Amino acid sequence: MTTTDFSVEFDLLYNNALSNSAPEINPYEKSLFLTQAQEEIIKEAYDDKKKGTSFESSEAIRRRLEELAVTQVAVYQPTLNSALNDIKMSVNSKFFEIENNVWYLLYERCNTTTKQLYIVPTALDQFSMLEDNPFKMPNRDRAWRLDVKNTINDIKVVEIISTQPLASYFYRYLKEPTPIVLTDLDVLFPGMDLTINGVSAETGCILNSEVHRIILKRAVELATAAYKENSLSNNIQLNNRNN
User: What is the reported pTM?
Assistant: First the structure.
């Protein structure tokens, strides 16, 4: 669907849902609802993975999100590790730079010069409980991954804890989707500096067209709920003033 298609169909569904009683929604507001709907649908697919049902097990969901799935390899950088030495959680910590648009990590492993290591994502509180347990520590086939804030610049990094000499970090991830922006906001709203997730230029949905109307329907549901909630709130305030 083009941005025009999104806009026209949004108006049609929105007006039908509210029997033409709701106020008109401008392109900026529609873009906000569409972007929110897109993000919700992606996150729901990822949540299924956390529940033990990988979205890749479903052909339909895999096709919906294939434009967001990216594979990268980060090479060990001695200079980066020296710069972040003060924040390492373990003497066996190694830092790897990852892409800034990483939203969710789907698969990861570390490579030595001779073998591959399984990565165990580990929360900080888990690490605190396990670090002194020799039976739970990373071994020759396993490494821990901690999420960490880079203190020297805005580049994202991960902290891998392993006793092995790591050469690279292989990862596949869902990248953050670009927002759906139905029109050039600087043109429609000059001087207001409006953006959606930092984007002001007209931007279509990058996901597979199969999911476009699912996003559209969800966006209209969000807009309808927002209108009804606001209307209810206004009625309550009016009743309170009249009492």
Answer: 0.78
* Residue in 59, 60, 65 with CA at minimum distance from that of residue 43: 65
Chosen domain end from 142, 166, 190: 166
Angle at the Cα of 85 from the Cα atoms of 81 and 87, rounded to 5 degrees: 120
Treating both helix axes as pointing N-terminal to C-terminal, what angle do 3-17 and 27-50 enclose, rounded to 10 degrees?
90
- Tell me how far CA of residue 163 lies from CA of 85, 103, 140, 166, 169, in angstroms: 16, 28, 7, 9, 15
Taking only the tens place, the pLDDT of each residue in 109-133 is 999 989 999 998 888 878 777 776 6
Q: Which of 166, 187, 203 is the last residue of a domain?
A: 166
Question: Residue 223's domain spans which residues?
Answer: 3-65+177-242
Note whether 158 and 96 are within 8 A (CB): yes
Q: What's the pLDDT band for 240 if we cut at 50, 70, 90?
A: very low
